[in-house]
Amino acid sequence: MREAFDALHTNVQRKLWDMRWTELRPIQVQAIRHLLGKGGDCILSSPTASGKTEAAFLPILSAIADDPAGSVRAVYIGPLKALIDDQFRRLEELCERLEVPVHRWHGDVGDGARRRLLAAPGGVLLITPESLEAMFVRRATAMPRLFRRLAYVVVDEMHAFLGTERGAQLVCQLHRLRMRAGCDPVRIGLSATLGDAPSARGWLRPGGPAATLIEDSASETTLAIRVRGLWRRAPRAGGEREDAIEVDTSLVELARAILLAGKGNTNLIFANAKSRIEALADALVREAESMQLADAIVVHHGSLSKEMRAHAEERLRAAGPCSAVCSNTLELGIDIGQIDEVVQVSAPWSVASLVQRVGRSGRRAHARRVLRGYFVEDAADAQSVVWDGLHLEFLRAVALIELMLERFLEPPHLGRAHASTLIHQILSTLAETGGATAAVLYARVVGSGAFAAATPESFAEVLRELGRRDLIEQMGDGSLVLGDRGQDQVDHYTFYAAFHAPEELRVLHGDDVLGTLAEVPPPGEHVIFAGRRWRVDAIDMERRAVFVSPSKGGKPPAFISPPGLVHPEVHRKMRELLLGGNEPAYLDDVAKAILKSSRATAARVGYFAPSAQPFAGGLRLFLFGGTRVHKTLYLVLARAGIDVDVYDIGLEARGATENIVDTLRAFANAPDPEGLAAFADEKLEQRRFGREKFEPFLPPSLWRAVFVREELDIPSVVVMVQGITS
DNA sequence: GACCTGCTGCGGCATG
């Protein structure tokens, strides 16, 4: 412990004295020993608020303090802008006594700050993968100067990248950076929620030595959980006025309950979907007013302008009570002021997400964490639709809380082909280099190890397809350059993100930019946005802008996104909750009644194992097998022309029962995954299954092979069908 | 009935 402190640079030590640190946390001691000792790539894995960022940067700053210039010396890559801004503040403070400059670069960072970095590269740079991508495309010639002496790369919130498009992009970028700037920095990953830390060791540097795993499982602060249930009431009309909207009385009741429990505190309220976030914010603003509460209500999500987000963040940091209704833009790492309580309205998709959200509260010493859950459910009776009577979203939330208490975390989906991101990185590398031979391109992109499934043959096949589609073309000397359509892709500002997002229009009130919307109501209609009510005055498609003015009416906006993946373990726990008789102590009386109602519904349909239950309109499949298995079965039935819906834990197929059962049996007896893939390729809307950004540019045969391998789960489906149809 | 994350350059204008 003492020797770890002694190993730090004198001015880092002085700063710690200034900040009145009395001791180093265990993860910090271990990280200092490792990074200032034998060194090498490492993963720092410890609970939220255990000081991981400092664990990485105390030794990094100590190592570069006497030699901070000549190029950027350390890069920090974060998944969220708000997180980068927060870490920027903390690092600036840490660097106060050092000669180490701290820079940040993301979409909301102004020209001035960018020019300062370009003029005198040095110290630490905080950046998103998307902004780094933009550097490769637009400023490739400056990159050697910027990163020549780069010694460290810190990947924060590593779990947010593992097994995702952005993760493959990031791993490829690190390799490309090495090729471009001749640097080979030590790679350091940070996370509090790695579902499988040992398997993450090989991710930071594929094909290279595995990272050293530095773990500190110090027990978390005490956590108080309270889950409150509310029964939904019938909506009533809002009155005669033209701009009045239907008033959802349960939303009003929900808002009132949240305000009463949280008043006088600083709270984060997670409501999952942007549409729901806006609806709840609107209700909270109105109720706070009618209750004459001084508490501020602010909104924070990714479709709001930087000004709106900055306002919310400032208000949270300021003294005085404040509640922020937010999406996962405030989920990770952020340490904004003193958050007293975390409120979760409806269920998130994963345990990891819940753990991160809970980790936003109680970050000061001796403060406890508080999680309040709220669920509005329809009262069910014997006539109710079974799916409603199971109260699936509520059940999922309780399952996630139970799994969190058992310390379960979803393992990442590693080893994926990431074919969409492969194309992204091919196009980006051609923009970066201005042109390259296939061999060079292979070395730069596939050589990163981010695309484990790519072979020289499949890579060549992808290149040929890109050529056929005018995305790339071959010059006389054999080298490859961007084609017309490839240049169009790369020139558009939406290119830099590896993930798909719908095109959006800017929402303007006078000169103020409120944010962006993909689904805009026609002029004359009303919309709730940024926590306020607006009338749509005009839409200018050419300028891609919507003009709004304040109004009294409004309804929440729609956003387009495919549903998330639920891990089979979460479904297993939901089923266990239905079968078991215990009542978690954190449920209030209504929540207990909701759980009881779920169990009564399950008993009424005789559900005790995965099963197929006939009903008047067809067959209901209660599966609890995880989203991948359900999607596979959805395809089996939809391909046979059967009308089918997915309901979290199962499916509802409509039509003649015999036909449905025969279709399932026929598939189990002779599965043809390729047929399912072909059907998905031809018929499936992007909305339902969420195809990745550049998948439309893949050779169809390759797309289908990847789809079969990664999106379908044939063995599980065969076993399940045999079980439910025997 | 179903999540979210992120994003450049430039022209036009006002200001010192």
Automatic annotation (TrEMBL):
Keywords: ATP-binding, Helicase, Hydrolase, Nucleotide-binding. InterPro entries: ATP-dep_Helicase, DEAD/DEAH_box_helicase_dom, Helicase_ATP-bd, Helicase_C-like, P-loop_NTPase. The keyword rRNA-binding does not apply. Residues 33-197 form the Helicase ATP-binding domain. It comes from the Bacteria. GO terms for molecular function: helicase activity. Residues 246-409 form the Helicase C-terminal domain. SMART domains: DEXDc, HELICc. It holds the Pfam family Helicase_C. This is DEAD/DEAH box helicase. It comes from Pendulispora albinea.
